[in-house]
Amino acid sequence: MEILKERICRDGVAIGTEILKVDSFLNHQIDAALFEKIGEEFASRFSDVAPQVNKIVTIEASGIAVAAFVARYFDYPPVVFAKKDLPNTMTDAYYFSEIMSFTKMKMAPIRIAKKYLNEGDKVLIIDDFLAHGQAAIGLLNLIEQAGAELLGIGIVIEKAFQGGGKKLRDRNVRVESLAVIERIEDGTILFA
Ligand code: 5GP
């Protein structure tokens, strides 16, 4: 997606060779006009399965806004986000998994209440970044526990050099990434 790549080059900040900071339009301040275009692009890439998608699943926090915009282009299926902490309000039974967070360097629990993810659901996962694939694999695990079916994963920015995309595609999971970064070198972001 050309306008996304241009935006990453213009406003993205490389932190070392591993992390990309895109707070000005994706992770802290949100560019809603760009998010509309992101929603449109995912709808076009997943047009073959769009009529079947009855749920969009993501993970807090940064996936939520993207997923909500994407829902608009899939006829507004419910957007369910996995929670990373256990609020007092989460009194219902939930599916549980654990993922490694490389940005926080620790294991983190993720949960989705059973009532929001059901057997037979046809799910599209949406997230902001795909790095080592931990978040996506954790969500896939919750979807499998529910007996739901994953139709595909839509990612805004994939960092190919961290291997998550390969891991998922090797498992025959369909992954569509709007910008794929091959590597980060001397502060320069190089796309695949
Ligand atoms: P993974 O689980 O694939 O290793 O990492 C994906 C998750 O970590 C995303 O949900 C995202 O929140 C966060 N993440 C991974 N790499 C980056 C990055 O370079 N920049 C930002 N802002 N978040 C990242």
What does this protein structure show overall?
With 192 residues, this protein is α/β, with parallel strands linked by helices. The protein has a single domain (2-191), classed as Rossmann fold (3-Layer(aba) Sandwich). The protein has helices at 2-11, 23-27, 32-45, 62-72, 134-146, 164-170, and strands spanning 13-15, 19-21, 55-59, 79-82, 94-101, 106-113, 122-130, 149-159, 175-185, 188-191. The structure holds guanosine-5'-monophosphate. Residues 19-21, 27, 59, 62, 102-103, 127-136, 164 line the site of guanosine-5'-monophosphate. Guanosine-5'-monophosphate (5GP) binds next to β2, β7 and α5.
List keywords for this structure.
six-stranded mixed β-sheet, 192 residues, binds guanosine-5'-monophosphate, alpha/beta, Rossmann fold, 34% strand
Averaged pLDDT, please?
A: 96
**Total number of distinct structural domains:** 1
Bound compounds, please? guanosine-5'-monophosphate
| Oligomerization status of the protein chains | single chain
- In what range is the share of β-strand residues? 25-35%
Strand and helix order: HEEHHEHEEEEHEHEE
Distance between the termini: 12 Å
| Spatial strand arrangement across the major sheet | 4-3-7-8-9-10
Helix content: 25-40%
* Shape designation: globular
Assigned CATH class:
Alpha Beta
The main sheet comes to: 6 strands, mixed
